[in-house]
Specification:
Layout (H helix, E strand, L loop, with lengths): L5 E7 L6 H12 L4 E7 L4 E7 L3 H6 L1
Antiparallel strand pairs: 1-3, 2-3
């Protein structure tokens, strides 16, 4: 089995208004099979994602 390229990326989240929302986003993204690690920083409104060839359209669908 060939493993895809791993990529760590950081994205700004617009209109992140509560810690509960940040937690739900983190839990939802973590369920994607391409995701190795995810962390949402509520204070700075950023999400950091370590992935194997993540298709960003999947993030928008969730």
């Amino acid at each position: 089995m060939t493993e895809g390229l791993r990529t760590m990326k950081k994205y700004k989240i617009k209109n992140l208004s509560c810690a509960s929302c940040a937690s739900r986003i983190e839990e939802g993204v973590a369920k994607l099979e391409e995701v190795n690690f995810v962390s949402v920083n509520f204070a700075n409104s950023f999400i950091q994602v370590d992935t194997n060839d993540l298709d960003l359209r999947k993030l928008k669908e969730k």
